[in-house]
C-alpha cells in the first residue's frame, strides 16, 4: 500500500509504501530530509507529525514514548500507516555542505586519564566553517570513519585555521588506541566536515539547562562560546563523571562561572571520594534537584545513550517540553564502529 507524504516547510510531496521507511521513500523520490545515523540513534531526522501515524519494527533509541505520544517521529525508522503531513520546523540549517579535506596534526596532549586533545589545522590555515555543536568524521579507509565533535568555536581566537577535538580512549579502539598515540605534528588526516544537526537554537529564548557526561562536554564547550557571546538566556551547565579526574575541564569551567553572572557550572560525580564537596549521584538527578519544574527551560543533552534516555524520561515527567529538548547521543555512529564519539 502507498501513502502520500507531505513536507510542510519544503512544500513538496512524495509517495511511501508500507514496507519502506519514510526516509528511504524520500531518497527514492529525490527529496533530501535531515538525517545522520539512519538507525534511530541520533534524532536528527525527528519530525512533528501534523497529520497521520507511523509504526516501528522497534522503538528507536532516540525517541521516547512520551515524544511519540506527543506526535514526534524518527523518519529513518518510521513506516507510514496513513497519509502523513510532516514538519521539520525545529531543524537547524547547516552553515556549509560537508566536504572531504586533508588536514594536518598540530599537536596532541593529554587532558585527563583517558582523554586526549587533538588539534588539527586546515591547509593554509583557512577558516573552519561549522556550527558549534557539529562534528567531523576522521576517514580511515576500510575501517570506516570515526566521529568527534568540535570542542572549540569555529575560529579559536589566536589560533586561526585550527580546530580542537577531545578524544576518549576506547579499549581496543583502532583509532583511539592504535593510531592516536602515533600521530605527530605535521602528520595528515582525511576528514569530512561539518556534520550533524546538533546546536544552539537561538529562537528558543528560555533559560537553558545543558547536561553532559564524559566527552559530551566537547560540543557544549563549543556552543558556550557562541551562546555567551550572543547574549543567550542564563545557562546552567551540569557535567557528570565518575571521579574528579574525569572532569578534565573543571578548572576552566569554574573560572568561566566565576567571571559570568549568566553562567552556572555544576560538576556531578557518581563515584566521588570523601573529599568531594560537590553534587553526588547521576547528573540528571542533580538537574532535577535544582530544577523540579523544567516547563520553562530549553534543555541540551550530550553524552552516553543511557544518560540521555533516562534524562529525557525524567525531564519530560518534570515538565520539560520535547519541543525544547535537544540531544546529541554518542550512538549517532554505526554500531559496528569501535570508538565512541565525542
From TrEMBL:
InterPro entries: 2Fe-2S_ferredoxin-like_sf, 2Fe-2S_ferredoxin-type, 2Fe2S_fd_BS, Beta-grasp_dom_sf, Cbr1-like_FAD-bd_dom, FAD-bd_FR_type, Flavoprot_Pyr_Nucl_cyt_Rdtase, FNR_nucleotide-bd. Residues 98-201 form the FAD-binding FR-type domain. GO terms for biological process: bioluminescence. The keyword Ion transport does not apply. Keywords: Luminescence, Oxidoreductase. The keyword 4Fe-4S does not apply. GO terms for molecular function: 2 iron, 2 sulfur cluster binding; oxidoreductase activity. Its cofactor is [2Fe-2S] cluster. It holds the Pfam family Fer2. Residues 3-92 form the 2Fe-2S ferredoxin-type domain. It comes from the Bacteria. Belongs to the Fre/LuxG FAD/NAD(P) flavoprotein oxidoreductase family. This is CDP-6-deoxy-delta-3,4-glucoseen reductase. It comes from Pandoraea eparura. The lineage of its organism: Bacteria, Pseudomonadati, Pseudomonadota, Betaproteobacteria, Burkholderiales.
Amino acid at each position: 500500500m502507498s501513502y502520500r507524504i507531505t513536507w510542510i516547510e519544503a512544500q513538496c510531496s512524495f509517495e511511501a509504501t508500507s514496507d519502506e521507511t519514510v526516509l528511504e521513500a524520500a531518497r527514492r523520490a529525490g527529496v533530501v530530509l535531515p538525517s545522520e545515523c539512519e538507525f534511530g540513534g541520533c534524532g536528527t531526522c525527528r519530525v512533528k507529525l501534523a497529520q497521520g501515524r507511523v509504526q516501528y519494527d522497534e522503538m528507536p533509541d532516540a525517541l521516547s514514548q512520551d515524544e511519540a505520544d506527543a506526535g514526534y517521529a524518527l523518519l529513518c525508522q518510521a513506516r507510514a500507516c496513513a497519509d502523513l503531513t510532516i514538519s521539520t520546523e525545529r531543524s537547524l540549517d547547516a552553515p556549509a555542505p560537508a566536504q572531504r579535506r586533508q588536514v594536518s596534526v598540530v599537536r596532541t596532549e593529554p587532558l585527563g586519564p583517558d582523554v586526549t586533545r587533538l588539534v588539527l589545522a586546515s591547509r593554509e590555515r583557512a577558516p573552519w566553517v561549522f556550527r558549534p555543536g557539529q562534528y567531523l568524521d576522521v576517514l580511515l579507509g576500510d575501517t570506516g570513519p570515526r566521529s568527534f565533535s568540535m570542542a572549540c568555536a569555529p575560529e579559536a581566537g589566536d589560533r586561526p585555521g585550527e580546530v580542537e577535538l577531545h578524544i576518549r580512549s576506547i579499549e581496543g579502539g583502532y583509532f583511539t588506541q592504535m593510531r592516536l598515540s602515533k600521530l605527530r605534528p605535521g602528520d595528515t588526516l582525511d576528514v569530512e566536515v561539518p556534520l550533524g544537526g546538533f546546536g544552539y537554537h537561538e529562537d528558543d529564548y528560555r533559560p537553558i539547562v545543558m547536561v553532559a557526561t564524559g566527552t559530551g562536554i566537547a560540543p557544549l564547550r563549543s556552543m558556550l562560546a557562541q551562546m555567551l557571546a550572543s547574549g543567550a538566556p542564563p545557562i546552567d551547565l551540569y557535567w557528570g563523571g565518575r571521579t574528579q579526574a574525569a572532569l578534565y575541564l573543571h578548572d576552566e569551567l569554574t573560572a568561566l562561572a566565576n567571571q559570568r553572572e549568566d553562567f552556572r557550572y555544576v560538576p556531578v560525580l557518581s563515584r566521588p571520594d570523601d573529599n568531594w564537596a560537590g553534587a553526588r549521584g547521576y547528573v540528571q538527578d542533580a538537574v532535577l534537584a535544582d530544577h523540579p519544574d523544567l516547563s520553562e527551560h530549553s534543555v541540551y543533552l550530550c553524552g552516553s545513550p543511557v544518560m540521555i534516555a533516562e534524562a529525557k524520561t525524567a525531564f519530560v515527567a518534570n515538565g520539560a517540553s520535547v519541543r525544547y529538548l535537544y540531544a546529541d547521543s554518542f550512538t549517532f555512529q554505526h554500531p559496528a564502529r569501535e570508538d565512541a564519539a565525542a
